[in-house]
Amino acid sequence: GAFKKVIEHFGRLDIVVNNAGVNNEKDWESTIQINLTSVIRGTYLGLEYMRKGNGGDGGVIINISSLAGLMPAAFQPVYCATKHGVIGFTRSIAVTASMENYGVRLNTICPGFVNTPILQSIDKEENMGQYYSYKDEIKNMMRFYGVMDPSIIAEGLITIIEDDTLNGEVMKITASQGIHFQEYSQTPFTSSQR
Fold this sequence. Notes:
Protein name: 15-hydroxyprostaglandin dehydrogenase [NAD(+)]
Strand order of the largest sheet: 1-2-3-6-7
Structural class: alpha/beta
GO molecular function, one term: 15-hydroxyprostaglandin dehydrogenase (NAD+) activity
InterPro entries: NAD(P)-bd_dom_sf, Sc_DH/Rdtase_CS, SDR_fam
Keywords: Fatty acid metabolism, Lipid metabolism, Oxidoreductase, Prostaglandin metabolism
Shape: globular
CATH class: Alpha Beta
Strand content: 15-25%
EC number: 1.1.1.141, 1.1.1.232
């Protein structure tokens, strides 16, 4: 319904940001549904309205993952799996969009720890389940990596929106290194620039 209302009001859809995220290791099926399935659904809906072969004007889709999508997170295995999934899905569908000339760019942002309500979920046993006893380890990681203000994530988002050369990229944002990109080795079947 939200996609239809945007089209009705503005006549087109240019930007989609799929920013779904919960941290609930106890209700892990819900975590998969919210963190991964909804991002895939939002991407496919966005592509239906935006891709040029379907009457759209093109645009950009940005899926929010996490640094936990790039490394193991022993205390959050399901959260980690969903965020790895967001990266793999986005990079793959970006190649498809390029090959099929959709006119839509797809990229991922992987923030470190951000000062949002999800940070409080590690203190709740009903979220962490069997991993609750490791909450201090996660807090140690937060101290090590630092906690960022959401405004730096917005800055990265604007960079992706404005830079038409970015497609299939994975932007990392950390307190210590700021905005930078994950480097991947070139595979023979992708058109990645990095």
